Amino acid sequence: MKKQRGLYFVQEVAWQNLITRRCSRWLSKKQNRAWLIPIGAALFDKNGNLLGRGHNRRVQESDPSIHGETDAFRKAGRQRSYKSTIMVTTLAPCWYCSGLVRQFNIGTVIVGESENFQGGVAWLKENGVKVIDMNSSECINMLKAYTDANPEVWNEDIGED
Predict the structure, then answer these.
(1) Which of 69, 115, 126, 152 is catalytic?
(2) Is the whole-model pTM more than 0.90?
């Protein structure tokens, strides 16, 4: 892996290696299980060092608060400041996870896609968070396939009836 650091490193190298690989694994599975929600996230410092990574384990843990972003955030542990951190996530963060980004002033959010679900992207941008949408066709296709096959679990995940 390159020694290059900073936002470019995270956006170009870490994104491809962490999130796209995760999306590809999901696409290659013959059967998606409803309890395996295909959303992952990672939190990096400004130099591109991984602080924590996680995935949506809401169903497995019977805990509605374990979204990909919150799991990565928890695993990153306490940080002195989050302003220069970068959250990388498979898709646009929901309102709950967008609130976490705002509460802790995470400076940049890189999303795999926001076509299937826009979440709080516009609100984050309006409040000064730098949001980079990768518009990944792999993530778009994966999330579309998952939400079509598992509408009840998906709606529960995003708080829809």
Answers:
(1) 69
(2) no
